[in-house]
Amino acid sequence: MAIKKTPNPIDIHVGSRVRLRRMMLGMSQEKLGESLGITFQQIQKYEKGTNRIGASRLQNIARVLSVPVSFFFEDAPGGEPEAGGMAEQQSASYVVDFLSSSEGIQLNKAFVTIKDAKLRRKVIDLVRAIAGSEDESDSLS
Hints:
Mean pLDDT: 83
Order of helices and strands: HHHHHHH
Number of strands: 0
Structural class: mainly alpha
Helix content: 55-70%
Distance between the termini: 54 Å
C-alpha cells in the first residue's frame, strides 16, 4: 500500500497566502488560472499546498495578484520567531485564517469603507459585546 505524502507546511502556507490575496481581490480561481494559463483545479492544488509552486510560477502569481513574492512567505512556519514569541505567531496565523474566510473578507471590506473612526470603534465594541469579549486588553489601538 502506498503511503500518502502530506504537504510541506511551507507549501500549505504559501498556498493559503495565494488564496488570501486572491479572495481579497475578489478574484475567482478560474480567473487566476486563466491569467496564468493553467486550470482552476491547479490553482486549488496550489492553494491547498498539495502541489508545490515553482519559482517562476510564484513570480507570475505575485504579478497577477499585485503583491511582492515576499508576501507569500510572511509569517511562514519555521521562520525566525518574532520578539513576542510563540503566542504572537499563533495569533498571526489565526488572523490569516480568518482573513482567508469569505466572512473575514466580507467583514474586512465593509469595515474599511467606514470613514468615521468613532463609528469603527463602535462596530468593534459591538462585535466584542456579541462575542462576550469586552476585555479592553485585547484592543489593538
